[in-house]
Amino acid sequence: MEFLAYMGDVFIPFNFLLLLIGTIGGLILGATPGLSPTMAVALLIPFTFQLEAAQGLILLGAAYTSTVAGGAVSAILLKIPGAPANIATTLDGHTMAKKGEGAKALQLSFLSSAVGGIFGVLLLIFLTPVLAKWALAFGPSHLFWLAILGVTVIGTLDSSSVVKGLLSGCIGLWLSTIGFDDIMGAQRFIFHPALGGGINIIAALIGLFAIPQVISMFAKGRVDSGAEVIEVKKHPIGSAFRALASHPRALGIGTAVGSVIGLIPGVGGQIAGLVAYDQSKKFSPERDKFGTGHSEGVIAAESANNAMVGPSLVPLLTLSIPGSPTAAVLLGGLLIHGIFPGSDLFDNHPDVAWTFINSMLIGQVLMCLFGLYVAGLAARVAQVPQSVMAAIVLALAVFGSYSVQSSMGDVYVMAALGTGMYFLERFGFSAAPLVLGLILGPIAEANFIQGSMIATATDGLAPYFLTGVLNLTLIVIVIASIFYSVWMELRARRYTNKEEMMT
Amino acid sequence: MSTSTASRLEHIIASGLIAAVGVWVAYTSYTQAPAEAFVFPRLVSTVFVVLALWTFGKACLGWSKVGAGLSGSMFLRMLPGLVIALIYIFWAAKGLGFYTATTIAFFILLSLYDPASHGTIRTWIKRLLITACFMVVMYGLFAKLLKVYTPREIFF
Questions:
Q1: Per residue in A294-309, pLDDT tens?
Q2: Chain A contact set for B75 (CB, 8 A)
Q3: Is A426 in contact with B18 (Cβ distance < 8 A)?
Q4: A65-81: per-residue pLDDT in tens?
Q5: Could you say which of B40, B81, B94 has the minimum Cβ distance to residue A445?
Q6: Would you say A345 and A331 are in contact if contact means Cβ atoms under 8 Å apart?
């Protein structure tokens, strides 16, 4: 119960103010289509430079939690999911809003988000210290394989093409080697002076997540959001509580599915919401009502996408392996303060670790409290023309990447990576594995070199890296994730071919 | 050209460029000295080049199906914004100063992509006001709150 000792730190006035700003700002950003939680958190990082580590993480954590929940506002009131995690919410949430039950749908969405989110953070609280201690047993070879696992799992599960996902991961790993080699001091791949100090992770994150969105908005041309906000009629909160309590099955399924999926690196909120929705429908006696504005649909989807937030940070905080793109951005937020996740975080910076985790717990309650009040405003923000959003995001990306080290080189790298990523995305590549490769590359390389030195002095390279229970387990998971994804891709293709032949 | 999936030629060009980068990375990794500094890049570049050539081969055979590609109309819609963004980032931000360049770029982008009418004074005043308000917020955030010293050059 160590976390309780640091609970008071969340309520220090400045920390609490940051939590409020992160929560309310996140709810509004989350409701804005095109601004994903990952991009919102990446754009916020420059604002944390002058804050202490715990304060910076409070802001980022609150934004992460509430952007996921905020996405439900536009899903319900505009039929535009604020983030992929809210796709399943649209199915019943918007239909409820059209039937005049918008307020009820919003209330159910925030209440179930809070329940799922609190359960997910509790899982993070109780699992993380145990796994962090267990991670102490990891040697260089295991950490090398873990880093590779992080890249391959996201590369295969998060991409529509396994080969392109893995290739994106490789590009990220290569980009991480640009600059001066740590051991020999040799120059590697420095083909432009801006790359002399290597690729700054924060600038890269901003570029890879923000710039493709900006260009996508340009590519849509002169379009209005085209969505009309459905007016919300008053609905007593007490009856929303009763409605939530009367659907424990949907809430339980959503929370359980979200928590389990959150623990699996690379799967993400979109899958959590859709799987929870599907499972709730299967187990519900009122399955015919799903899709027609049924409360259970909203409860299952929203409890799931917020329940995955806490568990998705477990691999990051224990093994330094970000399980999702947003977790990778949070890792960037930790690294700029010189803090490395894992047992070091809990042994040497327990105040930072626990204040951050506790703030996520309190943030769930605040998100629920403020969600309903901010919903109307958030829905209006979601109607802001894309031209305004594109210009705002572009300017924030330029100022944000410059402020990392006051270097124009970082701005150029941000722009080049972002523009390149937009074109790569158009051809089936995705940013998530590339980011993971970029972040995990130095971890993989450092442990590979260290492991090679140990191996040279002992049994040799192959026995050191390819034997032992833990090494073999990790290798099997790497291979299994690749084969599973290949199998899924082939199955999906066969299904598509069949459909094409039938039509 | 299909709007749902990219054409074979588009896939060949995209994957060909990546394959070229992969070959260059592998070549550099295996030819640069000291070799000890390139052990990890060699490992990565080997996998990189194999996957890149595989993707290129698939594209040449017409087996690449993933990716919506870039239609001509989409490219034309995006081009002015992209050009302005790149001029802003690679020249104006440093040459004119961050705040001046951002004000100009923001206003141009807003005007280019704003779906509202371009024939009334009211909408132009609205755009000017949005730009001014946004710049005040940016100045307050970065210059005053975060104390980021950005290149000033002309004006501010």
A1: 889 999 999 998 898 8
A2: 219
A3: no
A4: 888 788 888 888 877 77
A5: B40
A6: no
Cβ contact A408–B94 (<8 Å): yes
- Closest chain B C-alpha to A384 CA, distance in angstroms: 10
The 10s digit of each residue's pLDDT in B49-70 is 999 999 999 889 888 777 777 8
CB contact under 8 A, B58 and A387: no
Residue of B nearest to A449 (CA): B40
* C-alpha distances in Å from residue B87, one per residue of A161, A274, B101, B139: 34, 42, 10, 21
Closest B-chain CA to A175: B41
A209 by Cβ neighbours in 10 Å (0-12 / 13-18 / 19+) ranks as buried
CA atoms within 13 A on the CB side of B11: 24
**Model-level ipTM above the cut of 0.85:** yes
The values of phi and psi at residue A43, to 5°, are -70, -20
Domain ranges of chain A: 2-502
B117 → chain A, closest CA residue: A222
Residue B1 has what pLDDT? 39
Yes or no, beta carbons of B67 and A428 under 8 Å apart? yes
Q: What are the two backbone dihedrals, phi and then psi, of residue A180, each rounded to the nearest 5 degrees?
A: -90, 135
Task: Residue A402: list chain B partners with CB under 8 A.
Answer: 93, 98, 148, 150
Predicted confidence at residue A175, as pLDDT, reads: 95
Tell me if A452 and B43 make a contact (CB, 8 A cut-off): no
Within chain B, residue ranges assigned H as helices are 8-31, 39-61, 72-87, 93-95, 98-113, 121-138
| Cβ atoms of A335 and A60 closer than 8 Å | no
- The tokens describing A204, both together, are 């890269």
Handedness of CA A231, A235, A237, A239 (dihedral sign): negative
3 state SS of A408 = helix
Of A188, A214, A399, the CB nearest to B85: A214
Per-residue pLDDT tens for A267-276?
666 678 888 8
* 8 Å CB contact of A222 and B114: yes
Q: Hey, what amino acid is at B98?
A: F
Residue-wise pLDDT tens digits, A122-161: 998 888 878 777 777 788 898 899 888 888 877 776 667 8
Instruction: Specify the pTM.
Output: 0.83
Q: Which of B54, B98, B110 is the closest to A391 by Cβ?
A: B110
